[in-house]
Amino acid sequence: MAPKADPGQPLTYQIKVQGQLDRDWSDSFSGMAISLRGDHTTLTGLVSDQAALRGMLNRMWDLNLILISVFAIPDEPVQAKEDS
To answer: Which of 2, 9, 15, 29 is deepest in the core (most CB within 10 A)?
Structure first.
């Protein structure tokens, strides 16, 4: 079983929606990278915490986007910066 992620820590997500979003929407979704493929759009990027993810999903709901999938992408743990 994979270790549980801390909901207060940043995590990379891949969110897929139906339809094609213009790349100009990147700023509206916290600077996530936008890629288009066929009839869907994939947004990929670091999300600061679960509250920020919820905000993004709410924004998609408000825009009447059809959500296809949401995946957390496992990567190296985010390390806190050391004080000099």
So the answer is: 15
Rounded CA Rg of the chain: 14
| pTM, two decimal places | 0.75
List of residues 6+ apart from 57 with CB closer than 8 A: 15, 67, 70
Partner residues linked to 46 by β-bridges: 12
- E strand map for the chain: 11-18, 33-37, 40-47, 67-73
pLDDT in tens, 44-73: 999 999 999 999 999 999 999 999 999 998
What is the Cα–Cα distance from 48 to 71, expressed in whole angstroms?
15
